[in-house]
Write a structure and sequence with these properties.
Blueprint lengths: L6 H12 L2 H8 L3 H15 L4 E4 L2 E4 L1 H20 L13 E7 L1 H18 L3 E7 L6 H5 L4 E4 L10 E8 L1 E5 L12 H6 L1 E5 L8 H8 L5 E6 L2 H9 L4 E5 L11 E4 L7 E7 L7 H14 L10
Parallel strand pairs: 3-4, 3-5, 8-9, 8-10
Antiparallel strand pairs: 1-2, 5-12, 6-12, 7-10, 7-11
Helix pairs in contact: 1-2, 1-3, 1-4, 2-3, 5-10
Length: 304
């Protein structure tokens, strides 16, 4: 059996990324005819058409969709192997990291993180992206370098995970709210009007489950996409927000917080990244910065 031409992996990566022979040819500085010949060789090697004509454009075959993330990772890992392993010089490091996290996390821990990065590596820029879902695709395809989250079924099994801190939910109301005085019982809590928090608009979660066990239900009058928004609404109204205490710590200044009158599980907030960045010295430094600024107890870890 003849050995495969591994140079074709780079061509395949670009073709699947561009879905265009002409654009792929320009990107690799080849003629369109040379790129067409390369596509023919790739089709022969894989036994699949890979890109199929649909009107005036090309669309990937199911096999191409399956191969795209694997091929991209292989090419990136090969590039890392051939890159000089120079010692990390933070003062000369110029790089932008994309950090996907909730608004509450950015507002709570972002100032300290940015101050530390600015002091240690002034050429590094941190780009915060809102976390609108739990999909792992942005970490896989490299559009996101690092993110925070609570591990769940949607978390990619190949991702690296480092726990940052445990958190508990508390109730939050404005100063002067009736719940500021007296014991907050399940009945008093249920009698108020509440803010639900869900990125997907779902209004049933662990709080509803815990109250159902007590034969109670809370009245959710509005649902928002993040805890920071819930805190802001509670500050300016008589609504009750139930939020993770540490995750929203600095946002709660001037508000009254109380222990929820029932038990719901604590959550563990973790850092997540793709394994291809494990050995990247700058990325490892950034992970250390995040952990130091959050200052949480490390309760579990993958690579550090």
């Amino acid at each position: 059996m003849s050995r495969p031409d591994l140079n074709l992996l780079v061509t395949l990566d670009v073709l699947l990324s561009e879905a265009s022979v002409a654009r792929a040819a320009r990107r690799l500085r080849l003629s369109p005819s040379a790129m067409s010949r390369a596509l023919t060789r790739l089709r022969s090697a894989t036994g699949d058409p890979l890109l199929v004509r649909a009107g005036r454009s090309l669309v990937p075959s199911p096999r191409a969709v399956e191969l795209r993330p694997r091929v991209h990772q292989l090419v990136q890992e090969a590039a890392d192997v051939l890159r000089p392993g120079a010692a990390l010089d933070l003062k000369r490091l110029v790089r932008t990291f994309t950090f996907r996290t909730s608004e509450g996390f950015a507002e709570n821990f972002g100032p300290a993180l940015l101050a530390r990065i600015g002091e240690e590596a002034p050429g590094v820029r941190l780009r915060f992206l809102p976390k609108v879902d739990k999909e792992s695709a942005p970490l896989r395809d490299g559009t996101v370098d690092l993110e925070t989250g609570v591990i769940g079924p949607a978390t990619g099994p190949e991702l690296r995970v480092q726990a940052l801190f445990r958190d508990r939910f508390v109730g939050v109301v404005r100063a002067g709210h009736p719940l500021c005085k007296g014991k907050v019982t399940p009945a008093r809590y249920a009698a108020g009007e509440h803010i639900g928090v869900s990125r997907r608009g779902v209004d049933h979660g662990p709080i509803e489950a815990a109250m159902l066990d007590l034969g109670l239900a809370r009245r959710v009058v509005t649902v928002v996409g993040g805890f920071a928004t819930a805190v802001a609404l509670a500050r300016g109204s008589d609504l009750i927000a139930s939020v993770p205490e540490r995750h929203t710590g600095v946002l709660l200044a001037g508000l009254h917080r109380f222990r929820l009158p029932f038990t719901i599980p604590e959550i563990t907030v973790s850092l997540l990244w793709h394994p291809r960045l494990d050995a990247d010295a700058a990325h490892r430094w950034l992970r250390q910065c995040v952990h130091a600024c959050v200052g949480g107890e490390q309760v579990a870890s993958g690579a550090s």
